[in-house]
Amino acid sequence: MGIWEIYLTTAMHGLVYGMLIFLVASGLTLVLGMAGVLNIAHAALYMLGAYFAYTFTHSTGSFWLSLILSPVIVALVAVLIERFLLRKTYAKGHVPQILLTFGLLYMISEIVRMVWGTNPLRVFEPPLLSGEIPFLGGTYPVYRLFIIGFSILILIGMLLFLMRTRVGLVIRAAVHDADMVGALGTNVPFYLFVVYAGGAILAAVAGVIAAPMLSIFSGMGDQILLDCFVVIIVGGFGSLLGAFVAALLVGELQSFGVLWIPQLALVFEFLLMAVVLAIRPTGLFGEEA
Amino acid sequence: MASVLMLENIWKDFSGLEILRGISLEIKEGERHAIIGPNGAGKTTLFHVITGFYKPSKGKIFFLDREVTGLSTYRIARLGLSRSFQITSIFPKMTVHENIRNAIVSKLGRRFDWTSLLSRSKDIQEETNRLTELLRLEGVKDMLAMTLSYGWQRRLEVALTLALDPKLILLDEPTAGVDVKETRGFVQFIKEVTVGKTLIMIEHDMDVVFNLADRITVLNQGQVLTTGSLDEIRRSEEVQRAYAGRK
Amino acid sequence: MNRTVPYWIAGAALILGFLLLAPHLLPEMKIHLIIEIMIFSLWAVSFNLLFGHGGLLAFGFGAPFGVGAYAAALLFQHFAGISLVLTLSLVALLGFVTGVIIGSLSVRLKGAYFALITFGFQMFLYAIALKWYSVTKGDDGFGVTRPALSLPLAGNLSMANVVPVYYFTLAIVVLAILATYLFQKTPLGNSIALVRENDVRPPFLGYNVYLTRLTVFSVACFLAALAGGLFVFFNEFVSTAVIDMNISMIVLLMAIIGGSEYFLGPILGAAFYVLVQNWLSSLTNRWFLVMGAIFIVVVLYLEGGLISLFIPKKDQPGVSMGGK
After folding, report:
1. Among B54, B110, B85, residue whose Cα is nearest residue B160
2. How is domain A3-279 classified at the CATH fold level?
3. Strand B199-202 relative to strand B32-36: parallel, antiparallel, unpaired?
4. Which tens digit of pLDDT belongs to each residue from A38-78?
5. Which residues contact B230 (CB under 8 A, 6 or more apart)?
6. What is the pLDDT of residues B124-150, one digit of tens each?
7. C chain contacts of residue A266, beta-carbon cutoff 8 Å
């Protein structure tokens, strides 16, 4: 393969990974914008999505079935966490919230190790999507193209929902100014719930579709947490567009980083974050303080 | 009389939204200056710009004949410019004594002193006691700030500003939220503890203004509408129009 | 922070007396536990200097501990006759420098952002420790031998036996913890506390908030690295376990379960962690889950931590942890 083919392939990989990060980070940034809560445990939902995908795929034999079942179970877990644990911290302030969500990420990682073992697991892509197809001069795995395509479909669905429905309108307003929306008489907690559950489903879906491509391991939560964190800082708190742009940027940086300095691809993410923090601390698309 | 504060053509905008539009003002030593104006006129923003919290988009600021445009807040505070807040900002879980002491530690330049014990530092203790007495807070000095009534918290708010022995005092709506019955006493308190000092205050309550100030600037939509002595402003038609138009 | 000094002095004196006699009263395995408790106490106290006193919650506090541990291990490995005191001094200094570097980039952020960016830095250092196999031996780790302690007039004291290790560790830890306590009572300690109490007002009173926070962060890292160095000195072994996410969770567990609003809370937390972990792990493999559950229960229902159970209600500050 010539140098351009390598770069193109790397760029495609970056696009794939960026899309996955976006799916997870979108829920995180919207909840952050609406409720001012950075729910660290959200990263664990992605990991659970992948692990449940493993279980369902192996027990039912169908990847597609697990694509439906896994997010449902994970959303249920997320709702239970919110109802019985997270809710208790709203009145206590930010520190208990941060401690709780971090503790939950940790606990869930431990539970995952306990239930599924410490060895990385593999899920195989569905036969329909396996193999490679000719692409721009070379070949490219079908499955990765599927991830890109599927993520774009989800993105379009999200945009339609937020732009064209009444619920979406309220959510957009609340991300912008939750107090004001509440003062107008809207039942903000209900919309927060919608965003929270929706975000959980997206994170789980990302976990499911990531599973055949990446290996499933108990450090997945920490890894995606850092990526999402960089995305939020770079993209701006509460900005979906920002999260999208930043996610693609981070995905590409990871991809090229692995190509150039495989040992420490993290460096590039950090450099990006440091630069953004120095030049425009509220993020590329964030609102000025 | 010496010039304490000089604002030259100050502009401040936020992403295109102009809040301050070409404000020029001079405050002389010993002056007691009130800034009044309708809501949204930019008064608090002006205070933020003077204290270095915001950098002006255009224009210069001189404090005691020294240019301070663009300096950080803490540097400006150390030069002798101190402000109080409209929304009380004190140290809630510390006692009144400890609150004042925080200002004194800074005034005496001991912020980074790690080689002496605070409780054994005679100079800090004595200065804190002196100021606590001067600022009439002797009686409550061992109470936790958060247990004080709102009125007393406002006193502490002003006291923190004054504990630095500043050369210029900025008071942002000092009587905000204070019970009508307590306002008289509070204004008297401010009058006594700021005697002879240079003062700029933002106020809505005209009684307070007439009691404390000798010069007034009226701000409207980010610009100086007029500046003058108490009498001049009272009689100004422009001022009446600005206030009437807002209703 | 704490107004009821008398009980603590009496209690501390008793405990100190016990600690001085312990090697003669208890079997070796228990002495090992006490040493571990002492080292973790120092680390937890340094964490709380940053969190309870400074108001800064860092999820990446395994970084200075790990840096200190690896630095000590590498010094012991490559310089066989090196002075023990010099090693620990260098290690602590390196911790301080690490604090300045990470802190200068992090302390401008608040709350969860600060917590996570320190976590990011730690993960970066973890990646280095994991992958630089030639130096660190990755997660296999490597062993070291304790150098002897050279006493000014009495020659070298071998550290092969656990008893001298115990007393040396006790001396260093007690001194360091005492120094930390006094540090909090200096004007600088006060500056750090007032910036925690109110982060809007201090600049208007002349305080440089950034520099103040950077200072407390660096000092905390100094102490954490010292603890890391002692850890390697005691265990004679280092691996990526000193700098992974787990270890960050451990210090968090100790400080929070013990109680972050009182100076001695983290020490109680360290003792609790070591003893309970030791007991639980003989019962079940899943002890980390139990610890995690206790942590969550404390966060939700016992904000003052375990130590608040020993303090009469009237002396408690009566507000939720971390303020705001």
Report:
1. B85
2. ABC transporter involved in vitamin B12 uptake, BtuC (1.10.3470)
3. parallel
4. 889 999 999 999 999 999 988 888 888 889 999 999 999 99
5. B210, B213, B214, B215, B216
6. 999 999 999 988 899 999 999 999 999
7. 120, 123-124, 127
User: What's the Cα-to-Cα distance from B208 to each of A211, B35, B176, rounded to whole Å?
Assistant: 69, 12, 11
Chain segment B8-27, per-residue pLDDT in tens: 999 998 877 888 999 999 99
Average pLDDT over chain B, rounded to an integer? 90
H-type alpha helices, chain B: 43-50, 73-79, 96-107, 122-134, 150-162, 180-193, 206-212, 230-235, 237-246
Token code pair at residue C302? 């016992």
Q: Report the residue from C59, C289, C320 with minimal CB separation from A111.
A: C289
Task: Find the domain containing B31 and state its range.
Answer: 3-246
Smallest CA-to-CA distance from A74 within A84, A86, A66 is with: A66
Which chain C residues in 193-212 lie under 8 Å from chain B, judged by CB atoms? 194, 197-198, 200-209, 211-212
What is the per-residue pLDDT across A264-288, written as a single tens digit (0 to 9) for each? Answer: 777 788 778 878 877 776 777 766 4
- Determine the residue type at A258: V
Domain boundaries along the sequence of chain A: 3-279
- Distance from the Cα of B235 to chain C's closest Cα (Å) equals 36
Look up tokens 């992948």; give the residue: A50
User: Residue B45: which CATH number?
Assistant: 3.40.50.300
| Chain position carrying tokens 């009686």 | B139
* Separation CA C121–CA B151 (nearest Å): 46
| The two three-digit tokens of residue B140, written as one number | 């409550």
Number of domains observed in the structure of chain B: 1
A273–C117 C-beta distance less than 8 A: yes
Query: Which value does ipTM take for this structure?
Result: 0.92
Enter the tokens of residue C38: 């002492």
Q: Does B118 touch chain C (CB under 8 A)?
A: yes
